[in-house]
Amino acid sequence: MYISHLSLTDFRSYAQADFELGPGTTVFVGSNGVGKTNIAEAIGYLASLSSHRVSTDAPLIRFGAERALVRARVARGGQATAVELEITAGKANRARINRANPVRARDILGIVRTVLFAPEDLALVKGDPANRRRFLDDLMVALRPHHAATRGDYERVLKQRNALLKSARSGRYTAAHESTLEVWDQHLAQAGARLLRGRLDVLELLSAHLGTEYAGLTDGSKAATARYRCTVVEELDDDGGTAALPATALPPSAIPSASQDRDRQDPAGGTREAGAVRAPGLEGAGIGDLERMFLEALAAHRKKETERGITLVGPHRDELDLFLGPAPAKGYASHGETWSLALALRLASYRVLGEDDPREGAGPILILDDVFAELDADRRSRLAAVVAGAEQVIVTAAVAADVPSELGGRVLRVTPGHVSP
Amino acid sequence: MYEGAVQELIDELGRLPGVGPKSAQRIAFHILEADPEDMKRLSDAIRAVKERVKFCSICFNVSEQETCAICRDPRRDETVLCVVEESKDVMAVERTRSFRGRYHVLGGSINPIAGIGPDQLHIRELLNRLSDDRIEEIIIATDPNLEGEATATYLARMLKTIGIKVTRLASGLPVGGDLEYADEVTLGRAFEGRRSLIG
């Protein structure tokens, strides 16, 4: 898909701006602070209804204005759709599709699909585990919008259970606590099993691509792998290290569904690392198995949890360990390697989204916000070669020379509040 | 800030559910300008409700007597008990006119964040009622949200040992609605709870 026209009203630094875009690459060039990222952010917002820079909507609205308006014409395999999103701080956003009556903002999810690369992605590798969990969950929701509810359900049960544990702290643990805790255990295990299964499915899909994408960006001397460490089957201490690995019996019956996909659609290259992502202890577990394992883990941690007044096991404390060769990426990887790995994670999610909907013109839009400046010439051209296959690529850069020439495309100059060819 | 009585009224009204500061001010000035007789009836009604209305000693529904009209009615089916969160929910089920059993009002749902556990609800009283062996079925009609479901799970665990039939209201698509407008969660539940049309 590609965006053929983008219009911003009172969005960030733009009072009013209109861009004609086309398939292929468009490079927005301008000095620091002129509003290049705002364009990337606006397109990303249409796809995910959240910003990659801020967690609230207020900063998106031009200072002094009441609401921001983002309008786009999206071309998808010869079919054009007009989406319009009105962002009002503190109030529900409203959207319109093809100038029809306003609908809920979430109804436009799926019309625009993007994969956004930004300097913030470094946190995927270097940051705390919450960044990696969010990466997995965001991709899970982008693939299957109904998982937004899976995620929300788990968070709500977790809050209630934590409130109960807190009230049971410091020796006030009563029989009533015990019996209610069992109820919340059951609900947490149900919601948690669904969330875990969703994440594991995403991991299966990612596993086919992570190794290949990293190898494609580098000289291929180190293999990128990932390991999902689940607190339900592994004891993680507070630093995220593994304290013990209890042997959990798993039924041999369940077969991971995505492994079949992997066999079926091996690409021509064949260099793909099958199983670059592993989830020890969880292979092939169905929702029922996960729920049972979750309940066992909760029972095993009962004493510790009531002492600390917090839920210690579950997907909210899981970690996705990233490795380059044998060494963990966090701490050991160089700045350049960290960048390449973060890019590889995003590229892998781009492949996953593309495979999910392989129809002509359905592939996601790639947005590269200020990433070339961080890479050496070799990695730049490798990244350029990978993204050149996308139907539309939006690039922002402070210096035009940073953008590899093989990407080609149209260059638009950005000055404060304005964009000109 | 207004002087004395007016501000006091605005503050009191503002404490009511669903009434914000602007609405409170509007209602206060309406009361100020309204006919004194009308407003006397309103204040009498508020006083009467606090003085006369209490909770039924059997089912905890609102009642002006020791027991509520439903518990007193001999025509009601005493073999079925419908468990709801609030008295409002009794009225909702009553409007269907299809349930002829009796009720038990819990007085809320299990909600640790709000500090409500089983002991704060009328669950012990429900268990006491079950010593009456005429009761054959318990219908759990708590809200289909997280807290309501947790309460239903709790009750189901308690009642399992007693060996009584326990059912839960179905979740799914609203009648007369459009499938395309149903949200994913509701539609998902409707799929889980689908039933066979043949046999």
If you had to describe this structure to a student in words, what would you say it looks like?
The complex is a heterodimer of chains A (421) and B (199). Chain A has eleven helices and 18 strands. Chain A is globular and about 70 Å long. In chain A, the strands form four sheets. A six-stranded antiparallel sheet of chain A has the order 2-1-4-5-6-7, with helices on one face. In chain A, strands 8-15-16-3-17-18 form a six-stranded mixed sheet, sandwiched between helices. Chain A is α/β, with parallel strands linked by helices and 421 residues long. Helices cover 39% and strands 22% of the residues of chain A. Chain B has a four-stranded parallel sheet with strand order 4-3-5-6. A two-stranded antiparallel sheet of chain B has the order 1-2. The interface between A and B is medium-sized, with 22 and 19 residues.
Counted up, domains of chain B total: 2
Category by helix and strand content of chain A: alpha/beta
- Roughly what fraction of the amino acids of chain A lie in strands? 15-25%
Averaged pLDDT of chain A:
84
Total helical segments of chain A: 11
Spatial separation of the terminal alpha carbons of chain A: 23 Å
Annotated CATH topology of the largest domain in chain A = Glutathione S-transferase Yfyf (Class Pi), Chain A, domain 2
CATH class of the largest domain in chain B: Alpha Beta
Spans of chain A of at least 5 consecutive residues whose pLDDT stays below 50 are 239-274
From the coordinates shown, what is the CATH architecture of the largest domain in chain A? Up-down Bundle
> Biggest interface pair, residues each?
A-B, 22 and 19 residues
Q: How large is the count of helical segments of chain B?
A: 8
Summed over residues and divided by their number, the pLDDT of chain B gives a mean of: 91
Which structural class do you get from the secondary structure elements of chain B? alpha/beta
